[in-house]
Design a protein that fits this description.
globular, mainly alpha, about 65% helix, 6 helices, 434 Repressor (Amino-terminal Domain)
């Protein structure tokens, strides 16, 4: 589904998607927890945001309760 190799945005989205699934939260709920518009989550998912800002990455990582490093590297995806 989201398995294009070598794509930093994609690795980040895989981590986000996996954590959302683990925590059973929707894109709308993630947006609410991160205090961002839900269209931003959709744009990230669809690859329209190719290089998320540091601020956006921090908000998403905090909302998902994961480290920025795990989010950036897609560590959670690589472990399974």
């Amino acid at each position: 589904m989201y398995k294009r190799k070598g794509n930093c945005h994609n690795m980040m989205w895989v981590s986000v998607f996996k954590k959302m699934k683990e925590k059973n939260i929707s894109q709308s709920e993630l947006a609410k927890r991160a205090s961002i518009n839900k269209t931003v989550i959709s744009a990230l998912k669809n690859g329209k945001i190719k290089k998320p800002s540091f601020d956006l990455a921090c908000k998403i990582a905090d909302a998902l309760e994961i480290s920025l490093d795990d989010l950036r590297k897609g560590k959670d995806n690589a472990e399974n």
